[in-house]
# Entry
Amino acid sequence: MTAPILEIRGLRKSFGHVEVLRGIDLAVSPQELVFIIGPSGSGKSTLLRCCNRLEEPSAGTIFIDGVNLLDRRTDINAMRRQIGMVFQSFNLYPHLTALSNVSLALRKVVRKSRAEAETLALAALARVGLREKAKSYPSELSGGQQQRVAIARALALEPTIMLFDEPTSALDPELVGSVLGVMRELKQDGMTMLVVSHEMRFARDAADRVIFMDHGAVVEEAPPAEIFASPREARTRAFIAELTR
Amino acid sequence: MDAWSRFLDTFFKPDLIRHYLPSIAIGTLTTIEIGMAIVVTGIALGLVLAVVRTFRILPINVILVACVDIMRALPPIVLVLLVYFGLPNIGVNVPSFAVLWIVLSLVLAAFAEEILWAGILSIPKGQWETARSTGFGFFSTLIYIVLPQAMRLTVPPLTNRTLAITKNTALGTAIGVPEILNQATTGQSFSGNATPLMMGAIAYVILFIPVVGLGRFLETRFRWSRA
# Structure
């Protein structure tokens, strides 16, 4: 078996006295799409945000592609380029065009020339089907287009894993499909992905594994067909019944 | 003499206009020079202070905020007089031009720091997080993502404050800086007529109306509609 791209062991995170993550173990293999579901407040987003240290874990270890993310000697800024992150609220830079949103880190972090950065950025925009929107500002794009630009922005850095934090939760229902379509293509292209989302249909079609979290712990994990059809745990069953009602 | 000609004779006397035009022109140049110097150093210093404040080093920020608040609380004329008439007593002689420039730069810096700091705070946390997640460090996130947005947001208040403070170059008249008002009051004392003062007023209008227009232009030029 190949070594995992992401390996989390005994991860804990507390905010003050509140323990949000209580010992998470999780491994994501290359090209695997792991889907995290769970009620709000279960710690899914915090788990994801620990994976690129937007939140500082309180205990445990996280390895990305064999590198200890929590080691003080690890260059976190260099590591973060390898870990693409897509947020619920898109967070495009409003003062920059779609092209500049995607090329900024290539130019200023990776230090590529403007021409080279823009070529790569255009290729990334093409991958999400928005090459013709390169010159548009975020305010001129629909929510679905903004989220796809945000995906392109992360993709352009050629990450080894992509983290999606409820990527479609802020979208109008008719725009969800375009974003999920892009994610499905990424999966087909072999991207390793960790997705927090409530899109159960997408989980059923595209996920390799579904993880159900509650109260800061993994309650159950199984392939999607299994977990949706016959969840073992009562809490999982109740949550899935609630969602698919 | 009817009221109209008395009015003209008081405020727009032709031979006085001709006589005092050169000195008002010199005053205008002096005001432009000091004004531009104040804008450049004041805003640059304000920007540096706002950036320093983002590092949130407690002792530094306590001192910084205290200084800024003092500068904002004191009427600029008090500072101008204090520095100009006070410092020579301890053997430091600063030319009046420099006193005006330094004092008003510090006052503008204090206000600019507050305005820019508010602008920086108004940028959503998600912008910081996104930039950090693509590998930007703290300082480059500030430089490439946060400040460009904060500065655009703060163009209107910054323009207003800059105008208010550069107009204070008129305080130079109290310490003998040969700016517009100084030239005008000198002319008024010698001629016993308000025409030089009126000329000074017109000079200020001619000088500052374009600045107001520039502010308006920058405001629309750098605006982006927010989704």
Remarks:
- The first strand of chain A starts at residue 6 and ends at 15.
- The mean pLDDT of chain A is 94.
